[in-house]
TrEMBL record:
InterPro entries: ACT_dom, Chor_mutase/pphenate_deHydtase, Preph_deHydtase, Preph_deHydtase_CS. It is an enzyme of class 4 (lyase). Residues 3-181 form the Prephenate dehydratase domain. This is Prephenate dehydratase. Pathway: Amino-acid biosynthesis; L-phenylalanine biosynthesis; phenylpyruvate from prephenate: step 1/1. The keyword Transcription does not apply. Pfam families: ACT, PDT.
Amino acid sequence: MPRLAYLGPEGTFTEEALRLLEPEAERLPCANVGAALAAARDGEADGAVVPLENSIEGAITTTLDEFAWGEPLLITAELLLPVRFSLLARPDTEIVHIKRVYTHPAAITQCRAFCARELPDAVVVAAPSTAAAAQEVSLPGSPYDAAIAARIAGEHYGLVELADDIGDRNDTVTRFVRVSRAGTLPEPTGSDRTSLVVFLADDHPGALLEMLTEFSVRGVNLTRIESRPTGNGIGRYFFHFDFEGHVADARVGEAISGLHRICDEVRFLGSYPRADGVAPQIKKGTADPEFAEAGDWLARIRAGRV
Ligand SMILES: O=C(O)C(=O)Cc1ccccc1
């Protein structure tokens, strides 16, 4: 039974994702994404589950930066989870008396309209996770009057639900990933995604276009591109790419080998089954047998067999 670290404490959306991804796993709640990934790296856990992006705000940048700068880990699975937020408070709290609300930054951005409309005078403060916020609010003497978290977190920490489904949209989805230490890759399934981090060799006109061309000429469809600051001054960025296909696919292998040749560093983050099961559209000339046939043809002409 694997032991998986996750963004805790008990009652986070990440815990819900972990339970769906690996119902049998032993769960190790951690205080933040960095601690969960550290547990996976140092062997305290066999892997970790962390949030990566949501369909409204985009990337969870702490996770992206950990993947880019920390000891390498491999993404082995992903899960798309619709999340539903509740406003939770200690029993007897009235909504009009709420002046300080505590929750995870992703929940702050997804519940803005509710907070502006129903809690116009309240400040909303960033917490390490939604369940950490609920736990804190449950303490007598907490400086916070309410938390925004999953209903189950309210039940777990003895809070009452003052409002349910308070997200600005009810179709928001969060993408979570399971990571492991380097080792074996998941087998190709025909509906896979690959993730990479790419550092440019130098800054020059067309550098981004050159990277994109490596994907484009092999018919590899991107599903996410994100630039993140390198920290070495304004205007210095590196890139995260997610795209369709598995590193075992010829077109994917060729595209990332091309990036490896022209970029300073390419960090492979994993090839894993897509949660939505969508199969890639394969452009003419980019299927595995076509790459193999072209390779055979090249070998023949190099051997003088024209
Ligand atoms: O704080 C949590 O519960 C998390 O798992 C992170 C998060 C926060 C808000 C939406 C989705 C995930």
